[in-house]
Amino acid sequence: MCKIYSKQFISMTAFTTLVSLASFSHAHDAGATMDPDGTVAKFTGYASVTCFDDGNGAADHLAVSVKDTSPPVPGLLVNMQVIKGSRAANTTDPVSGDGSFSPEITVQGGNGVYQILVNKTNAGARSFQVSYHCMTSTNAHTGTDITVNQFE
Amino acid sequence: MKMSNRFNIVLLLTAIGLTAMYQSVSAHTRLKTPVISENNATHGSDYNAVVVAHGCIDAATNAATIDTLGTVVVFPDGKDSTITVNGQPYSGTLADYVTNWGSPVTKVQDKSIFPYEDYIKDSLGNKLGFWTGGGKGLKAGFRAVVPIATAGVIINPESCAKSVQFVVSIADICQITDAAGFSDQSVMLWTPTVGSIYQFEGAHTTDSPATLTVNRSITPLPASCGAGEEVVVKPSANQLNRDMRIIYEGQQIWPKQ
After folding, report:
1. What would the pLDDT profile of B124-143 be if each residue is shown by its tens digit?
2. What domains sit in chain A, N to C, each tagged with a CATH number?
3. Distance in angstroms (rounded) separating the CA atoms of residues B168 and A120
4. What pLDDT is stored for residue B166 in this prediction?
5. DSSP per-residue string spanning A12-72
6. Which residues of B touch A147 (CB under 8 A)?
7. Cα dihedral sign for B122, A58, A65, A123?
8. Cβ atoms B28, B53 nearer than 8 A
9. Which of A50, A54, A114, A150 to mutate to test the interface with B (most CBs of B within 10 A)?
10. DSSP symbol at B78
């Protein structure tokens, strides 16, 4: 039985690469595709980012930005919001597919849980990348964790 | 050497042997650090480990002498989990007590014992657990320290929780079987008794899961809370039946289908 088990494992060649959603959920700069069928204008990605002291110091703020990597479509832009407590901010990538991120926005909420949202202005598939980094008061990167709550 | 001295030595060695055997089957698979503080992560997360205590049990000798081929670890997803507060069922959501639960564990890559490993994820890509196994496995009589990191947990500051305990389900696999083949000889199921397929009558490990307890440490209890509440989060049978599996390249390896 042990042999069988080992053989099953040894025969494995490579792990399946989980694209889009998984990569969105587990890096500080990552991407995914919203509304892949192009029919859901209200499509929203919703995640919780936890900021903590990873040895670089307590978090002062969360800085985020978004980049729409799909070709331009009139009236179709990607937005990103960040919320913590009574503070919130919004940013939009004004030019799709140009390789540039939106203006960076920050919310100053210290350590703790920030809510981030990614959405768009109309129906249509949008591939995007997000950047999210918990920063200290001296702009040093510090502990950043994420949990994806919704992607639909 | 006098006969009486030889006899004493034999007695001593026997006692040591019996003690060692007793310890080897009485230790449970647990987290190395089962109690942590709230969101006190350093260098990315709270570094911890799953300690595989012993192998499976030989039916003839009742000793834990069967090697372990791999282990599967699953944290509650917090969505369809069972929550109790001070021992009483709670019908609200986990968000009432914890504001950021969802992707609780990161595996620290380590091939020193089991050369293969991968995550167990939910449909959103959150990491709810992992499996590791293969190779020559863990020789009976030895322990394994399987390194992990757990995400910082933040207790809802408005809640009365003074601690939140997450029940962690672990299967130490000694033989690849289907669920009908689960026995003390094939698997050590350190799982809660919640009605899943990962329990069986008379198991050595019955209702003896690992736990991770997070003590409130960031915000003080609201004055109205009194002594505070102890919250326990268990996975549902549905979650265990769904998540506690080894799937590789699209094929389920364990439990055998």
Report:
1. 999 999 999 999 999 999 99
2. 18-151 (2.60.120.380)
3. 38
4. 98
5. ---PPPP-THHHHHSSSEEEEEE-TTS--TT--EEEEEEEE-SSS----EEEEEEEE-SPP
6. 100-103, 126, 151
7. positive
8. yes
9. A50
10. S
CA–CA gap between residue A35 and residue A141 (Å, rounded): 31
Question: Helix %, strand %, coil % for chain B, to 5?
Answer: 15, 35, 45
Whether residue B214 contacts residue B38, with contact meaning beta carbons closer than 8 Å, is answered with yes
Assess contact for A89 and A81: CB atoms under 8 A: yes
User: pTM of the prediction?
Assistant: 0.82
Pull the structure tokens for residue B163.
């601690």
Q: Domains in chain B, ordered, with CATH?
A: 28-254 (2.60.40.2230)
- The pLDDT tens digits of the residues spanning A69-97 come to 999 999 999 999 999 999 999 999 999 99
Residue by residue, what is the 3-state secondary structure of A55-74? CCCCCCEEEEEEEECCCCEC
Closest CA to A116 of A105, A127, A124, A126: A105
Residue B23: strand, helix, or coil: helix
| Contact yes or no for A21 and B124 at CB 8 A | yes
Q: Which residue from B124, B250, B253 is facing A8, i.e. has the nearest CB? A: B253
Of B124, B125, B152, the CB nearest to A145: B152
Alpha-carbon distance A95 to A86, whole Å?
30
